[in-house]
């Protein structure tokens, strides 16, 4: 039985490092399970999940030309097929929703026409709001420093 990518095998943990675990496979070959392939969740310390001598089921992820074998424990576990999401509710047709009437600039369906402010109106509103905010910030800052006319000595 040759070891090929995609096959599931039984193996025995022979060594543990900070980056993964070495697993002895059939035919005496050894592969590495990287720490990110041990579980579906974040694994800070691999020693919490595996011990030397543990029997594990692994899936062969890759076999490199130099003989290194990449393994995964989390991919070897068959997960139940997730249910598909229910279909999204359909949108109402265009005739049901009020859409802008490009010719008149208003809305269909008896709603009040909306007046879009001009650029100048938007700019003057922005400047007014900015001045109000700056004034508020200056007042708060001056009160913390001792206000106007406070003598420094």
From TrEMBL:
GO terms for molecular function: mRNA binding; structural constituent of ribosome. GO terms for biological process: translation. Residues 75-86, 119-145 have a biased composition (Basic and acidic residues). Residues 74-153 are annotated as: Disordered. Residues 6-74 form the S1 motif domain. CDD domains: S1_RPS1_repeat_hs4. SMART domains: S1. Residues 91-104 have a biased composition (Low complexity). NCBIfam families: PRK08582.1 (NF006363). This is S1 motif domain-containing protein. It comes from Alkalicoccobacillus plakortidis.
């Amino acid at each position: 039985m040759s070891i090929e990518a995609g096959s599931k095998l039984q193996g025995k943990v022979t060594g543990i490092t900070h980056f993964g675990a070495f697993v002895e496979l059939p035919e005496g070959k050894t592969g590495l399970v990287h720490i990110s392939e041990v579980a579906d969740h974040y694994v800070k310390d691999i020693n919490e999940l595996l011990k030397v001598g543990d029997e594990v089921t692994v899936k062969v992820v890759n076999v490199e030309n130099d003989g290194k074998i990449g393994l995964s424990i989390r991919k070897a576990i068959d997960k139940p097929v997730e249910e598909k999401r229910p279909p999204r509710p359909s949108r109402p047709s265009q005739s049901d929703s009020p859409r802008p009437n490009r010719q008149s600039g208003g809305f269909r369906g008896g709603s009040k026409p909306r007046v879009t402010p001009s650029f100048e109106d938007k700019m003057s509103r922005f400047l007014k709001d900015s001045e109000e905010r700056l004034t508020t910030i200056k007042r708060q800052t001056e009160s913390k420093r001792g206000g106007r006319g406070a003598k420094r000595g």
